[in-house]
Design a protein that fits this description.
29% helix, alpha/beta, 60s Ribosomal Protein L30, Chain: A, six-stranded mixed beta sheet, globular
Protein backbone atom coordinates (compact mmCIF):
# COMPACT_ATOMS: atom_id res chain seq x y z
CA UNK A 1 0.00 0.00 0.00
CA UNK A 2 1.42 3.34 -1.02
CA UNK A 3 1.00 6.24 1.40
CA UNK A 4 2.13 9.82 1.48
CA UNK A 5 2.31 11.30 4.92
CA UNK A 6 4.64 13.44 6.96
CA UNK A 7 5.54 10.77 9.51
CA UNK A 8 6.57 8.25 6.85
CA UNK A 9 8.68 10.87 5.09
CA UNK A 10 10.35 11.72 8.41
CA UNK A 11 11.10 8.05 9.12
CA UNK A 12 12.44 7.25 5.64
CA UNK A 13 14.61 10.30 5.15
CA UNK A 14 15.69 10.95 8.72
CA UNK A 15 14.95 14.65 8.36
CA UNK A 16 13.63 16.57 11.34
CA UNK A 17 11.24 18.69 9.28
CA UNK A 18 9.07 17.26 6.50
CA UNK A 19 10.20 19.94 4.07
CA UNK A 20 12.67 22.76 3.75
CA UNK A 21 10.57 25.88 3.61
CA UNK A 22 12.41 29.15 3.18
CA UNK A 23 12.36 32.40 1.32
CA UNK A 24 14.74 33.13 -1.50
CA UNK A 25 16.79 35.95 -0.02
CA UNK A 26 18.07 37.28 -3.34
CA UNK A 27 16.97 40.89 -3.92
CA UNK A 28 13.97 41.72 -6.10
CA UNK A 29 12.64 38.19 -6.45
CA UNK A 30 10.31 37.62 -3.51
CA UNK A 31 10.15 33.94 -4.45
CA UNK A 32 9.07 31.20 -2.08
CA UNK A 33 10.73 27.77 -2.29
CA UNK A 34 8.86 24.75 -0.95
CA UNK A 35 10.34 21.27 -0.98
CA UNK A 36 7.93 18.31 -1.04
CA UNK A 37 8.45 14.56 -1.23
CA UNK A 38 7.25 13.08 -4.50
CA UNK A 39 3.50 12.42 -4.57
CA UNK A 40 2.39 8.77 -4.55
CA UNK A 41 2.99 6.90 -7.79
CA UNK A 42 -0.73 6.15 -8.10
CA UNK A 43 -1.34 9.88 -8.74
CA UNK A 44 1.03 9.90 -11.72
CA UNK A 45 -0.88 10.11 -15.03
CA UNK A 46 0.59 6.72 -15.99
CA UNK A 47 -0.23 5.24 -12.57
CA UNK A 48 -2.66 2.34 -12.64
CA UNK A 49 -5.45 1.58 -10.24
CA UNK A 50 -8.63 -0.44 -10.30
CA UNK A 51 -10.08 1.45 -7.37
CA UNK A 52 -10.74 5.10 -8.16
CA UNK A 53 -12.10 5.67 -4.66
CA UNK A 54 -8.63 4.83 -3.33
CA UNK A 55 -7.08 7.22 -5.86
CA UNK A 56 -9.46 10.00 -4.77
CA UNK A 57 -8.58 9.35 -1.12
CA UNK A 58 -4.87 9.58 -1.97
CA UNK A 59 -5.46 12.91 -3.73
CA UNK A 60 -7.27 14.27 -0.65
CA UNK A 61 -4.53 13.03 1.69
CA UNK A 62 -1.73 14.39 -0.49
CA UNK A 63 -3.45 17.77 -0.81
CA UNK A 64 -4.04 18.02 2.96
CA UNK A 65 -0.45 17.08 3.85
CA UNK A 66 0.97 19.47 1.26
CA UNK A 67 -1.20 22.27 2.65
CA UNK A 68 0.18 21.57 6.15
CA UNK A 69 3.72 21.93 4.81
CA UNK A 70 2.89 25.15 2.92
CA UNK A 71 1.04 26.76 5.86
CA UNK A 72 4.34 27.01 7.68
CA UNK A 73 5.15 30.39 6.18
CA UNK A 74 2.00 32.34 5.41
CA UNK A 75 3.10 35.97 5.63
CA UNK A 76 1.76 39.44 4.98
CA UNK A 77 1.00 40.16 1.34
CA UNK A 78 -0.46 36.71 0.77
CA UNK A 79 -2.54 35.35 -0.92
CA UNK A 80 -1.20 36.29 -4.33
CA UNK A 81 -3.73 36.73 -7.13
CA UNK A 82 -1.26 35.82 -9.90
CA UNK A 83 1.95 33.86 -9.64
CA UNK A 84 4.23 31.58 -11.58
CA UNK A 85 5.37 28.19 -10.33
CA UNK A 86 8.54 26.57 -11.56
CA UNK A 87 8.88 22.95 -10.39
CA UNK A 88 12.27 21.25 -10.08
CA UNK A 89 12.22 17.46 -9.86
CA UNK A 90 15.05 15.39 -8.39
CA UNK A 91 14.60 11.95 -9.97
CA UNK A 92 16.58 8.83 -10.75
CA UNK A 93 15.75 9.00 -14.46
CA UNK A 94 14.25 11.49 -16.89
CA UNK A 95 10.46 11.53 -17.36
CA UNK A 96 7.96 13.34 -19.56
CA UNK A 97 7.52 16.97 -18.44
CA UNK A 98 3.77 17.12 -19.10
CA UNK A 99 3.21 14.05 -16.92
CA UNK A 100 5.32 15.56 -14.15
CA UNK A 101 3.25 18.75 -14.15
CA UNK A 102 0.04 16.70 -13.99
CA UNK A 103 1.52 14.62 -11.16
CA UNK A 104 1.88 17.66 -8.88
CA UNK A 105 -1.68 18.96 -9.37
CA UNK A 106 -2.63 18.18 -5.71
CA UNK A 107 0.42 20.17 -4.58
CA UNK A 108 -0.66 23.17 -6.68
CA UNK A 109 -4.19 22.92 -5.29
CA UNK A 110 -2.85 22.82 -1.74
CA UNK A 111 -1.30 26.27 -2.20
CA UNK A 112 -4.82 27.68 -2.35
CA UNK A 113 -5.78 25.74 0.80
CA UNK A 114 -2.72 27.12 2.59
CA UNK A 115 -3.51 30.72 1.63
CA UNK A 116 -0.51 31.34 -0.63
CA UNK A 117 -2.50 31.87 -3.82
CA UNK A 118 -6.02 33.27 -3.98
CA UNK A 119 -7.17 30.92 -6.74
CA UNK A 120 -5.24 28.42 -8.82
CA UNK A 121 -6.73 29.91 -11.99
CA UNK A 122 -4.18 32.74 -11.58
CA UNK A 123 -1.27 30.27 -11.46
CA UNK A 124 1.04 29.85 -14.44
CA UNK A 125 2.84 26.51 -14.31
CA UNK A 126 6.19 26.61 -16.10
CA UNK A 127 7.95 23.66 -17.71
CA UNK A 128 9.65 21.50 -15.06
CA UNK A 129 13.39 21.23 -14.59
CA UNK A 130 14.62 17.68 -14.06
CA UNK A 131 17.78 16.84 -12.18
CA UNK A 132 18.44 13.16 -12.80
CA UNK A 133 20.82 10.71 -11.26
CA UNK A 134 20.73 12.60 -8.00
CA UNK A 135 21.91 10.58 -5.05
CA UNK A 136 19.65 12.67 -2.87
CA UNK A 137 16.10 11.83 -1.88
CA UNK A 138 13.66 12.02 -4.83
CA UNK A 139 11.60 15.17 -4.33
CA UNK A 140 10.04 18.18 -6.00
CA UNK A 141 10.86 21.81 -5.22
CA UNK A 142 8.32 24.47 -6.16
CA UNK A 143 9.58 28.00 -6.77
CA UNK A 144 6.59 30.34 -6.44
CA UNK A 145 7.01 33.91 -7.67
CA UNK A 146 4.39 36.66 -7.61
CA UNK A 147 3.55 38.25 -10.95
CA UNK A 148 3.83 42.02 -10.79
CA UNK A 149 0.48 43.77 -10.61
CA UNK A 150 1.19 45.88 -13.71
CA UNK A 151 2.44 42.95 -15.83
CA UNK A 152 0.36 42.05 -18.86
CA UNK A 153 -1.06 38.58 -19.29
Amino acid sequence: METWDIERFRRETGRVAPAKVHYDRKPFTGAILIEYPLPPRILHPNGRTRNYGYRAAMIRKTRANAALIARGFVRTGLPWKKCTIHPTFYLKRKQDGDNLNAWIKPLIDSLQDAGIVANDSGVTLLAPTQITGAKETPRVVLRITEVAKGASE
